[in-house]
Amino acid sequence: MADPVTFPPDKGAYIRTNTWMAAAAMAGAMIILWLIGNPYVWTGAPAGLAAIGIRAWYLASEELTAAWEMTDTTLTGPGPRKVALNQIEAVKTMGSFVQIVTKGGDKHLIKYQADPAATKTAIERAMA
Question: Would you tell me the crossing angle of helices 44-63 and 11-35 to the nearest 10 degrees?
Fold first, then answer.
């Protein structure tokens, strides 16, 4: 049996993902204020930034410790989540996330990967 492979979250990927979410929240809040005719459209920008900034700060201690580990037969994540490699139907990348879809339809996210393509490739190689 080979040594387990660990997929830890990356702080840089966490910051990048939350920066993109903050930009989207800022733009979305400003658009909503504009659509409802609010004369203070600019207030949507700090509101969106504050919302995502507080969320990112609050969740960082949990999200940045949620590592996944893969053995020859199993992918184990936080929670604990366990997925047998022979039960994986698909592996997809979405931004800094890698989504695992099982044959039973369950979906799991390996979040904030520095190189999601490399994570996907390692899992697919282990499945083969």
Answer: 150
